Amino acid sequence: MAAPQKKRTPKNAQSLAKGQREISISEFFTKNRHLLGFDSPAKALLTTIKEAVDNSLDACEEAGFPPRLFVEIRPDKPVNLGIELSSQETKPKNGNGKSPNKEDRFKLIIEDNGPGIVKAQIPKIFGKLLYGSKFHSLKQSRGQQGIGISAAGMYGQLTTGKPVVIYSRTGLDEPAHRFQVKMDLKKNEPTILEGDETIWEKDHGTRIEITLTGSYKRGQHSVDNYLEQTSIANPHLHLTYKNPKGETSIYANSTDVLPEEPREIQPHPYGVELGILARMLTDTKCRNITSFLKDEFCRVGAVTCENILAEAGIPPRRHPRRLVQDDIQRLLDAIAVTKIASPPTDCLSPIGEDLVMAGLKSGVEADFYTSVTRPAAVYRGNPFQIEVGIAYGGQLPGDELAKVIRYANRVPLLYQASACGIHKAVLGASWRNYGVQQSRGALPTAPMVILIHMASVWVPFTSESKEAVAHYPEIIKEMTLALQEAGRQLKRHINRRAREKDALKKQNYIQKYIPFIGEALQEILGIDDVEREEVVATLTDTLERSRKL
């Protein structure tokens, strides 16, 4: 017989309110670190390297320094806590049957030759989530949220208890500084354990050391593959990489020319929403709505501004802060029906067709390469450009699915391929039309590598871990058009190769029977052996010349 259920004591709102408190962003991501890409040891290792390398490349390019990066993954022994197991006790094992921590604990070192970081900013950059300079800036950059490198330090702190160590120097005449920083997880504030001047041989740059628990593996989702793909999309990068086994790889830069510096732009009116527009009207320093539209948005000139205000029925001299909710809604509706030029594209820095091709040639052995850079397009008022590169044939396996390399703002995307808009565009490209075998709902089967790069002032990632691009129709359309253009060039190559193969087959067939033709002519015309050999030589020479043509 079941025991009688205890009667629950009712609680009032006052008692429930005692358990409620504010949750800091660092507390939230401590429990939900999988959202940032730290959901497995192997992925955590890759994510940390990725965030640090992205920051270094952005810093070097913004300062005008051709980037030279050093990346090392060094095995790190666990701290001896003074606790020894007796001979009767069993040491804990991990999934591989090995003692944990020794091979799964690493010190990651990332060093660059960038401009360095000023002393006052170092603790906040590495010990505070959502702190950075790129979130409010509308121009192409690898970092967006100001959350990646500080989250990596947080993960290292959670798994090993060790702080982030930072060396930084801003110039030859400036002192170098060494910081040890931890994060106060309740307050989302940095705790400085050490912050003194030090001796460092570099003229300028930054060095980061993060100790964490991870898993080093080779393969598609490895750090090795990420760095190799990074070198393809950044031909101006000189990268030295040392893996945990002590093996050193050097990816030399193929050009000393930095990408064209993107310029920051104002928001485009088509990309603003009601709440954002209301906030902008409240925060602006403009004294009338006319100057507000001209100064706070791009592509709004005198005529466009006049048309918007006429459509909205708002006086040009009205103060922005005096607009009520109905006025703001009419203003937004007027923007939607007014023809406004697309935003400028000098805020973007695409790789370029020549460098996409050069990157593929440096990393992929094939016998055909092509690349396409589409004109700039817009989604939600944000300009973006799509680039596609294809490598075909050569040493690539012909009986496997094509390899797809995805990039967003020159950063490789290694995870969540099936959830990515880039993957969807490749699947829907109808490769059979271009002479490539493809099963329904699958990637094409061919000796082929497909590279797709999206450059944008704001890449719409599906999550904070920045692993997949959202399925915006405008983005998918541009990717499809770029793939179709590259596919047509591939088809011409495949058709030409087929014609050459067919012609070679026919020529080989003719060459096989040239001696018999000579013998037949000797019998018909009664020529001697010397004349017969001359006829055979003439026919052979004619065939060779036709091959060259």
Helix count?
14
Gross geometry = globular
Q: What does the radius of gyration come to?
A: 31 Å
DSSP strand tally: 16
Characterise the protein shown here.
The protein has four domains: 25-77 and 96-251, Heat Shock Protein 90; 269-337, Helicase, Ruva Protein, domain 3; 353-494, Ribosomal Protein S5, domain 2; 498-548. It contains 14 helices and 16 strands. The chain has helices at residues 13-17, 25-31, 41-63, 122-127, 148-160, 223-233, 274-283, 289-296, 302-312, 325-337, 353-363, 421-427, 473-525, 529-548, and strands at residues 68-75, 105-112, 164-169, 176-184, 189-198, 205-213, 238-242, 248-251, 368-373, 377-379, 382-392, 403-408, 411-413, 437-438, 444-445, 448-456. Strands 5-4-3-6-2-1-7-8 form an eight-stranded mixed β-sheet. A hairpin with a 5-residue loop joins β7 (238-242) and β8 (248-251). The longest helix has 53 residues, at 473-525.
Q: How is the secondary structure organized here?
A:
Layout: H1 13-17, H2 25-31, H3 41-63, E1 68-75, E2 105-112, H4 122-127, H5 148-160, E3 164-169, E4 176-184, E5 189-198, E6 205-213, H6 223-233, E7 238-242, E8 248-251, H7 274-283, H8 289-296, H9 302-312, H10 325-337, H11 353-363, E9 368-373, E10 377-379, E11 382-392, E12 403-408, E13 411-413, H12 421-427, E14 437-438, E15 444-445, E16 448-456, H13 473-525, H14 529-548
Parallel strand pairs: 1-7, 12-16
Antiparallel strand pairs: 1-2, 2-6, 3-4, 3-6, 4-5, 7-8, 9-11, 10-11, 11-16, 12-13, 14-15
